[in-house]
Amino acid sequence: MAAEMALVKPITKFNTINTTTARLSNRRLPFTVRMSAATTTPPTSKPSKKPQKQGIKESLLTPRFYTTDFDEMETLFNTEINKNLNEAEFEALLQEFKTDYNQTHFVRNKEFKEAADKIQGPLRQIFVEFLERSCTAEFSGFLLYKELGRRLKKTNPVVAEIFSLMSRDEARHAGFLNKGLSDFNLALDLGFLTKARKYTFFKPKFIFYATYLSEKIGYWRYITIYRHLKTNPEFICYPIFKYFENWCQDENRHGDFFSALMKAQPQFLNDWKAKLWSRFFCLSVYVTMYLNDCQRTDFYEGIGLNTKEFDMHVIIEVINWLYLTLPLPLLD
Ligand SMILES: [Fe+2]
Ligand SMILES: [Fe+2]
């Protein structure tokens, strides 16, 4: 996952629940898990050897962690119950994920730290926030996909393995962003977040809508930034942007997988309720993205983008793409 999922709660059935009730498995986290308080410490200051731990600032627009009804998921992906599941298509997708195109892509170099040291003033803080939020959003995808991979293993091993491989991708993305934070003398305490943060419950139908949208939005955000910086390299203030081209292909594959999942669940796409819900989710995801980005125009201007134009471009591209899968989202 790359973008942040819809945050508006449509009905009271949507609950925020604690980790213990989310029934998430114990998992080994692939990341460094410390949060330094030295967010605003300039590099000329001597960094603390024992940084104070610090949580992320929670707000309505903070990226959330999600859980769902895993029993219903098991039913939806049972091939004996759901005859719409195209096993050949999922097998082909699995082979694609197994290829692991980005296995050697996320390799850092000394440019990262040098670039981070040059980012000063207000941009430094906003840059740190960008890394924190992106890392949290990617990690949110890791947690959800990892659990789906575990829970669907018996019911549908192919779909389960794809979820596990997507969690591999998201772990890689989150880990790379967290390494970026270390250039700013920080590290998100992801182990602590996993246990301490509340999980938002979405029914499977809404998980499908929201994750599909967030993956496709993530793809378009990354590729738009990458293409912009390729033609305007003077705005590349930090090397992470150079990785976005291959990175966004992961998000694109994730989105394509959700597209196949939803086609196998026509009850979530074809009636008038589904049309209304999918439009609602589109709208709430777009509004969330727009509000988030408008609060951070300094970041987008810092890399030479006009925030509103950037968001409009992403939204239009996603809407065009969504016509292929979701029922008439927002345009008719
Ligand atoms: Fe991702
Ligand atoms: Fe993703």
UniProtKB/TrEMBL annotation:
A matching Pfam family: Rubrerythrin
Annotated GO MF terms: magnesium-protoporphyrin IX monomethyl ester (oxidative) cyclase activity; metal ion binding
UniProt keyword annotation of Ion transport present: no
Top EC class, one word: oxidoreductase
Reactions this protein catalyses: Mg-protoporphyrin IX 13-monomethyl ester + 3 NADPH + 3 O2 + 2 H(+) = 3,8-divinyl protochlorophyllide a + 3 NADP(+) + 5 H2O
UniProt entry keywords in alphabetical sequence: Chlorophyll biosynthesis, Iron, Metal-binding, NADP, Oxidoreductase, Photosynthesis
Name by which UniProt lists this protein: magnesium-protoporphyrin IX monomethyl ester (oxidative) cyclase
Metal-binding among keywords: yes
UniProt-listed InterPro entries: AcsF, Ferritin-like_SF, Rr_diiron-bd_dom
Transmembrane segments: none
PANTHER family attached to this UniProt entry: MAGNESIUM-PROTOPORPHYRIN IX MONOMETHYL ESTER [OXIDATIVE] CYCLASE, CHLOROPLASTIC (PTHR31053:SF2)
Cofactor(s), by name: Fe cation
Organism in which the protein naturally occurs: Solanum commersonii
Similarity comment: Belongs to the AcsF family.
